[in-house]
Amino acid sequence: MDIAALKRDLDGLKIDDHPAIVQQKSRDFYWYSPVLKQQLDHVTGDLIVTPKTEDEVIRLLAA
């Protein structure tokens, strides 16, 4: 996936690619499961997009 192209396609939407924020928001309660913790502990997203309207959600999902 070309992250730079995705960011261009989503210009105008709230995008966060700060590594600490992305890592924090990439976590849920997977660590309750020993199997999932082992499989997901090193995995993070590439960026966080926070749509504010239904149109932004549609645009995000279409990208």
Task: Please provide a written account of the structure.
The chain is mainly alpha-helical. The chain has one domain. Helix content is 48%, strand content 10%. It contains four helices and two strands; from the N terminus they run H-E-H-H-E-H. It has a two-stranded antiparallel ribbon with strand order 1-2. It is elongated, with a radius of gyration of 14 Å. The N and C termini lie close together (11 Å). The relative contact order is 0.24.
Characterize the biggest β-sheet: 2 strands, antiparallel
- Count of β-strands: 2
* Approximate helicity band: 40-55%
* Beta fraction: 5-15%
Sequence of strands across the biggest β-sheet = 1-2
Low-confidence spans: none
**pLDDT average, as an integer?**
92
Q: What is the domain total for the residues?
A: 1
| Cα gyration radius (Å) | 14 Å
Shape assignment = elongated
Could you give the order of the helices and strands?
Answer: HEHHEH
The secondary-structure class comes to mainly alpha
Distance between the termini: 11 Å
Q: Helix segment count?
A: 4
